[in-house]
Every structure is written in C-alpha cells, then in structure tokens.
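Researcher: First entry.
Model:
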Amino acid sequence: MSLLDGFETFCGRLKVESGAALALERWQLEVLGDVFEHVETLVLLPKANGKSSLMGALSLFHLLTTPDARVYVAAASRDQATLLFNYAAGFLNRSPELQTRLVSRPGYREIRNQRDLGFIKVLAADVDTTDGTGATLALVDELHRHKSADLYGSLRDGLGKRGGSLVTISTAGGSEVSPLGFLRKAALELPELERHGAHTRAASSTFVMHEWAVPDGADCHDLDVVKQANPSSFVTLDALRARHDSPSMREAEWLRFACDRWVEDEDSQVVPVRIWDELARPGTGYPQRPVSFAFDVAPDGAAAIGVAGAAASDSELVHVELVELRPGTWWLPPRLAELAKKHRPYQVLCDPHFLAGSLVSEVERCWGKEVTKVSGSEHAEAFGMFKNAVMEGRLVHIGQDELQAALEGAGTRPVGEAVLWSPKSSSVSIAPLVSVTLALLGEMRRRRRPKPRIINLNDLDLPETGRTAPTVPTRPTSGGFYGK
C-alpha cells in the first residue's frame, strides 16, 4: 500500500467534530501525492478550504508511521501554531483507538508517541528555538504572517538530518516583498509549470507548489469564477455569497482570503505605499545645506547612508534620500567621512542599539568628529516625525526602489507607548528606511534650534558715558557671504 493510500485509509478512521469520518477532497489527494514525493511543498489557497484539518491529520499519520518522528507545527506566533495543533489534538481526543498509542499534553502543546520517542510540538517564529531541530516533518502555517524567513529557513536546513519534509499552507499575502512572496516567485520559475484555470502547479525534483487563485484579469466578484479558486466541495456558492455580501467584508479581505489574490492592504502598512508614491519627485535636485546624514546596518551585513535636508523647491518640505546602499560595512566609515567633510552636516546620526553601533568609533576616527547617538525614545520620536511628515505631505523623495521595498516590508516594535522601526519584525532589510528616518530627525532638530539674535548696539538705550556706541554693521540682505 502506498503512503497516499495509507493516509486516505487512516483519515477514514478519524472523526471530525460532527462525528463523521474525515473525507479527503480531490485537491487534497492531489497535493498529498506530491507531499510524499518532494522535500518541500507549498500550497496557496483561500481560507476555509480545510487546510488546518488536513495538516492536523497529516501530523498524526506521520507520528504513527515514522520511527521516533519529530513533527514541528510552526507559525508566526505560538497562538497561531496552537490553532493547527488543536486540530490534531481534537482528532486524537475523538479516537479511542489512537489513544492507546498517542498521548496529548496540551499544557506543553505536544503529542507524544508512547511506543518510541516521537512527538508533535508547537513552534513560534523564534529562530533560536529551532536551531538543530532535525524535523522529520515540519508544517508551516500561514507563512504570509511571518515577518522574516528565519523560521522557515531553520526548519528547511534541519530536514537533511533525518530526510524530512516541509509542508507550508497559506493564503496569499499582502505584499510580494515578503518571505512568502519571494518563495512563490521562485517557485513560478521552476522547470515544471502547469496552469489549468484557477490551479497552478510548479515543481522541480525536490520542491512543488500548488496554488488555487482567481486568474489575472478575471472578475473577482463573479462567484462562479471565485468558486473555481475554492476547490473544496463544502465551499458552496451560497457560502461564498454570504461572505461576499456581509457588511463587514472589506474589499482587500475578499480579494486575499476568498480569491487568493495578492493585494496590498493599507490597514496593515505602517506607511501606506500609495501615499509614499504620491510624494515622489524624481529629478528634484539635492536637499539644501546644511543637511544631516545617518547610517544603519542590516542583519544581512549591508550598510546604508541616508540624508535629509530642506527641499530645493520648497524649504518648508523635507527632502529625504538614500545616498548609498552596499554589501558589507568596511566601506561606510571612510565614505561617510568623505561626505561629512564635503557637506559639513548639521548632524551625523545612528542608533547604537542597532547593528550600526559597531561602526561608531570607526566613523568618528575617520571623520574626526562625534557621531550623534540616538536613544530608543529618540528613535521612536524620529519614527513619529517620519510617519507624520509622510501622512501630512511634508516630505519629498526621488522615488528610489530600495526605500519603497523597505516600506512595503517594514515592521515595528513598541517602546513604552511609542513605536520604532524593528529589523527583526520586518520581512526585508529596512536599513535604507532607518537611515533616512534618523537623518530626518537631524533635519528637524536643525529647524527647531534657536536662531541667533543679531543686535545693533546703536539701537540700545545705553547710559550716558560721554562716549558714542560703536557702529556695528548689520547683516546684508544680498551679496557678500550671506548672499551665496
């Protein structure tokens, strides 16, 4: 008997909440045929098609049929992973026959095989806890919620120890600049690519992707079309119509979760990319002096320098720009010192609590002056200034792809009641974004500094001393040094 036939027989013994046997859908059988033949499987389809019950059943089957199985159920958060784990625990609780071999330990979020060392465990997106796991089966749920690819990569790299496999099932994401988006893009470039209506299959000898989605150009509000992207028989036209017509259903939710379309949802973006695009001014020239520079280092080792100053076209606007983004960090101290000596900035800033802190002493040595170190609360202040400047239209930029990509995948973290950028919770490198945000802080500080007061001693009411106050030349309105 093949693994697929064995699994189908096994599912027939499992009970769903209604008490009926778990019946596999045709699309599930097609996917499982590939799961048992490939190292990595990616499945993309709309919500409410039975993915969680399928993965719960698969985890139990693997635990029973693989000696000393190591099954990890992983998600962006422990709570999310627990939802999938609960499907497996539910099947076990409704199956007295299985309870003679398996035991559920809900407090530990694990199921143990009583005849060997096998287990099912829950993991959250914390790469430190997944190093060296050596999974025989890893199930990754809703990869679109993951801010980084660390968890997926750690599980994948541990498969070779036991010849394991990794299965990911998810709905479409809100941005293709994300771990799931990058994975899907790479899958679509695999040698075997077939499209039949709403279904796409892409495969190599070790990787396979199945995707069910409303095709490009099709009407996402034609329920007959949407049904083709929802392959489960229990997802009926009436069920789809009820979801579609619900007053609480937002357009972005319908497109992503019912049609499996990749749609940017402004509600999930720190700064809406649409608004950012409207502030682009290509060819706007350089910001006015004095400017402020800032630098940051990404987790992958790339370094970025950003600049901010008054816009050339309107000094009330702030011009931000990515000056340079390059791999490695060796080049940054001399390059930044060169820029600083040439442009004589108001400030050169960095957040020493980020990776950029390791470069501060070398930048100061090359430049000969002190770098302005930004505290966590000051970084949060800079974040607020940046976001407000964008939302209020007080910022301009030149439309650089690196900054837009950083905005699309940027994440944040709280600091008290404030918020700042967070590399760990971002799906892409945000070093370009951090560098221009901190540079903007320097520019706003420059604008807030007290202006020097010019006093003409001839206008002062001096006491009579018998001497005439010396005449002090006033600032010229044009020409000379100030007119340059």
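Researcher: Second entry.
Model:
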Amino acid sequence: MAACRGDPCARARGTRGHGSVEDRRALFQKGTDALAPVRQCAEAPDAARVAALAALAVLAALLRGGRALALLGAALGAVALGSLAWNGHGAATEGRVGDLHLASDIAHLLAAAAWLGALAALGLLLASAKRLRTKEDVAAAHRALEGFSVAGTLIVGIIVATGLVNAWLLVGPDQVQELGDTLYGRLLVAKLALFLGMVLLASINRYRLTPALAAAAHDPRAAIGALRRSLAFETAAVSILALVAWLGTLMPPTAM
C-alpha cells in the first residue's frame, strides 16, 4: 500500500519547517489530482464495503437466528466498517508507518463499533423491567453485564492503544501543548473528554451497578433503573462520532 500514499499529507509532513504555513497548507490541499492515488487505492475497499453491506442486508432479510449466522453478520459488518479506514488519514501516510497507521485505524474503528454495539444490546436488554420478572431473568441480565465488563476492558485497551498511535502520527509530541490553538486540537480534546466520560460511566457500571443488580435479585427494580440511566448517559456520548467525522475532514497538526 505504500505506493498508494503519496498524497499531500505525507509530503507536507516532510516539508515541516520549510516554507510558509500557507505553502504547506496549499501542498496539503492541492485537490483532486494530488489525491488521485489515494482515491484509486480506496476503490477496492469501497467495493468490499458495498459487497459486505449487500450480503449483510440479504442475510438479515432471508435468514434468522443461530450463532453461526450472527458471527457471519458480525464479520460482514467488520469488513464494511474496516474499509472506511481507507477514506481517512491512515491511507494518507507513507511506507511502513503508513501500514501501522492504517492497521491502527481499522482496529480503532472495530473496537469503537464493538463498544457501541454492546451498549445498544445491553440497553435493549434493560429497556423494560417487565422482561426481568424472575430470578432467572435477573441472573441472565447479570451474566450479560459481567460478560461485557470483561470484554469492555479489552475494547477500551484497544481504543486507547490505537488512539495513542494515531495521536502520535497526526499530532506529534511537539504539538501537544499547542492543541488549543487549532480547531483540530480543540475537537480532539473534546473527543477525549467524551471518551473519558464514557470510560467513567463504564467503570461505575462494572464496579458498582452490576454487583448491585446481583445483590438485589429479590427486588431488582432500583438496580435495573440505575443501570438503565447509566447506559442511557453512556450511549448519549455517541455524539463523539460527530467529532470523529469532523476531525476526518481537517488537516492534522503534523501537516501544518
């Protein structure tokens, strides 16, 4: 993929410290001709995404139930989602560092999707207290929450690790103190604040609210209500996706 990454972003990083800011911005924003190699390389991932989404739609329309089908649907969704990395900053980095950046972007996307998907599933599980009428129902809900707690730790670790890789490549250690001076930096700080808020809520769910549900098996209504509210606040933080989309349209500090 190295041959596909000769775009203005990578060249602008190489010209840092040479020429005016306006010259470097012009180099980054040359336009259609300069970005043609990246766009050509994105054609295959775009086709894969369309094919995966089409297969997923057919699967959802014609087939129901079964773990194997659920795994197949998840795999198709992962292909569709991972292909989006070729439309981001990761596809604009050259060489082996570019391969690392692209892989990091893909892992970041998949981990974030797993987190949000799990939140949606748990939210549906707890949406109505009427579904949790018996001790067995409450025990099943508790097992689901505990299972997500374990998986969630791994997911958060992947998000943090890949986020650090992306921050190193797009911001750089020399630019950390200047984040507040650019729109990109301010949006990045807002994204980090929302992410930390989600992690805080997830920690409360794992270490306080989930054990409270197990302890209140005879009358779980209060515990279920607390979990439902916490998950609602955590899900509301998906506004972070809007920030991610906005950041993808901006020139990163390392290209300035």
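Model: Note on the second entry: The chain has nine helices and no strands.
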